[in-house]
Structures are given as structure tokens and as C-alpha cells.
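In response to a reviewer's request, we include the raw inputs and outputs for one of the modeled complexes. The four entities were modeled together in a single run.
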Amino acid sequence: MPDASTTLTDLREIVRRFVEERDWRQFHSPKNLSMSLAIEAAELMEHFQWIDAAESRRIGDDPIKLGEVRDEIADVLCYLLALANELDLDLSTAICDKMVKNAAKYPAELSRGRYAPPPGD
Amino acid sequence: MPDASTTLTDLREIVRRFVEERDWRQFHSPKNLSMSLAIEAAELMEHFQWIDAAESRRIGDDPIKLGEVRDEIADVLCYLLALANELDLDLSTAICDKMVKNAAKYPAELSRGRYAPPPGD
Amino acid sequence: MPDASTTLTDLREIVRRFVEERDWRQFHSPKNLSMSLAIEAAELMEHFQWIDAAESRRIGDDPIKLGEVRDEIADVLCYLLALANELDLDLSTAICDKMVKNAAKYPAELSRGRYAPPPGD
Amino acid sequence: MPDASTTLTDLREIVRRFVEERDWRQFHSPKNLSMSLAIEAAELMEHFQWIDAAESRRIGDDPIKLGEVRDEIADVLCYLLALANELDLDLSTAICDKMVKNAAKYPAELSRGRYAPPPGD
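The model returned the following C-alpha cells for the whole complex.
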């Protein structure tokens, strides 16, 4: 089931089943899940801690390291899906709504090649 | 486009276009994106910092707070999708592969109601 | 050398020597050290992830867990001292200056028992 | 009171008084403080997010940016001191004990210029 044919709901259901089979919803308060997300994000960051940006772009050259990074990314996504399940939030519409705000804050023509809101914003 | 009918590729394309229209791939090294992810995860966590687990489960009662949390969740997901784009990783198969490992580490019958690998693991 | 008789400079020198003996300043850019700090803070947080606030106050009852938490706290402090060394910042005056700002933002009489700036701020 | 003449206890007392004057110990469970620490570390990291390691070494050239970074570092340290206060941990001996472990894990002669435990470790 590749990304091209997998819906967000498909992935959410995989996580939901895993959590329910273990009776883990009792631990999955949004507070705790937000901590889990930050912890997994830090574990992902650890793989890039002592290398520079250019080296980090070549991490795919090393299949073992890429596999580790892939597992950490999956962990972050799992907790994000678990959090969306607990809060009953639709992720796709959340992203679309946020992208509208982002586009207003960073107009394409004024933001080309600069990672900051335009002057005067 | 709700989660039930939106594929991971659909969302990845939204992020990819946003980044390309602004010529931001130059900033999007995996190292930098892993930092962004951790920063956004911390901003999400901030909403739950001083409340307890039970209160955090009721955050949906306050539409304004829920909206803020929803925006932070969208930010985390956007950076995660941007990172998957840079590393050319399929998220759906990454999750499925990781879930197989998780199921081996936390067998359902031995992990019911306990959030730790079974004794002797 | 307990806290009562150890100066910040004493601890900074311990870290400085450790780093110099290993020729590690080349890795210690402020960017990298800020990542290290966030990573170690997440490792500390991991010890409190699935327990509630009340349980976390009793962590000292378990000498093994307290020892692990103590090591993580030491790691965070080491990187903070390394960062102060690289940026040549005096931590004591930085804290005092920040505390003046904090006291203005959270006046004692208006902030008793509430963890937010007073209304209208 | 510069670092050369300020003890860890001096700084801990500043934080302790600030917290007590506001009756904030009720919020300062180790769980919550570990979240605060991670949140402040992320805010610090934000200043280095889109610049490279070399630029981050020159942050001191910009007094305004350096002042912002200095405030974030102070925030991290404040929460670390608050956590040490809650757990009644001596930071100086914690650092010294951890440094003995670090020196065993990263022997100076085998770790010169490499940021990883020696092979076979």
C-alpha cells in the first residue's frame, strides 16, 4: 500500500487498531502524545546532529542510516495519527486550512528564496 | 478533501508545490527539516504544558484552543511530508514496516494496559 | 564540590577541558549545540512520558530512576555550558537580566497561583 | 554577579524565590518542568534553524540576535534549576559524576576529532 493509494484514514485505522488491541488509549492523553511526538522528533534529529546540511542530503546513500531515519519518521507519524484519533481531527482539512494561512503569510512572489515573512509583516 | 478520500501523495503534492513556488528546497536539508519538526512539536506541546492529562483530553471543548492545536498539528505534518519528499521515502510502507516491528516488541496479549516491552525483552 | 561552593565558571571549565582534550570544538557550533540541548531535554522528558504529574514528583523514591534522571539533567547542563562557552556568554548575568523581565511580565501579586501573564498584558 | 563568583546555589535561590513568590510549585512537577525545558530548548534552536553551522558561530556579531539567544539560554537554565530544586539534586556533583562516565565512554586519545564512541564500544 504505497502513498499513492493509501488514504490518511487507512493509516489512522492501522494506528487505532494497534492502540486498541493493547488497551493503550488510557495512556494516550493529548498531553502525553504531544510529549511522545517531541521525543520521537528528537530521536529523528539525533541522526543529523553532528553532520552538516549537505551531508544530511546524502543520507540516502547509506541504506542502513536511511532505514533508521525511516523508522524514526514512521514513529513521529504514528504518534501524530494517534493524536489526531484522540482529538478527532481531520488532518487533510487541517493541512489545507493551514496552507491557506501560510500562503497569506508567505506570498510566493515575495518569499522566493527567503525564509521569513516579507518586510512589514 | 477529508482523510477518508485523501491519499498521502495528495498531501505530499500540496507541500511540494508550496515549497517549489517559494524556491525553499535550498533550506530543506533533512538536517534543517528535522529541527523544524522538533520545533513545531514543541509548539504543539506548549498547549498542554501546564494542564494535566485529564484536562488535555477536554481541549476539544474549547474551539479556540482546539483550532490552535489543529494548526500546530498541521505544521508538524507539513514538515514531516516535506522531509519525506526530500528523502523520497514512502510513508505508508514506512509505517506498515514499523508497525510489524512494534507488534513484535509489544505483543498484544502481553502488552495490554502496560506501556513497556514485556519482561525479559 | 557541591552547588553551595561551586561557581558557574568552575563547571564551565570542566566542560571546556573535556571538549578541548577531544578536539570537539569543531563540532560545537551553536547550531549543533542547540540541537544537542533539545535532544538531551527530550531524553530527560522520556522518563516522565507515561506517568502523571503526581507520580513524577515521587521519582526520587526510586533511586535507580532518580539516578537516570540525574544523568540526563547533567547532560542538558553540560551542553548548556558548552554553548555558553562557545558564545562567550555569562550565564549568571543572563539569568539575572531575564529574571527582571520575567518579574515585569509576571508581577508576583497578580500571578499567584496562575501561570499566565495577567489579563490585559 | 558574574559566573566567576556566582555559585550554583546562588542561582538556584533566585529561581526558588521567584517560584515561591508566585506560588508556582503546584505547577512544577518534574513532568511539567521536563516539558518546559524541551519547549525552551526548541525556542533556542529556532534561532539557528535556517542558518548553517558557520553562520551560527557568528551570531555574536549581531547584538540583537545574541540578546535573544541569551534570553532563551537563560530560560533553559531557569527551568533546569527549578527542576533541580524540585528533585533536590546537586547539579555540580551530578555533572562531575556524569563526566567520569563520559570520559570512560569517550577516552580522550581515541576520541580526538571524532564524535562517537570508539569502535567496539
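As requested, we also summarize the result in words. The two ends of chain B are 43 Å apart (CA to CA). The helical segments of chain B are 8-21, 30-46, 53-57, 63-87, 91-105, 108-111.
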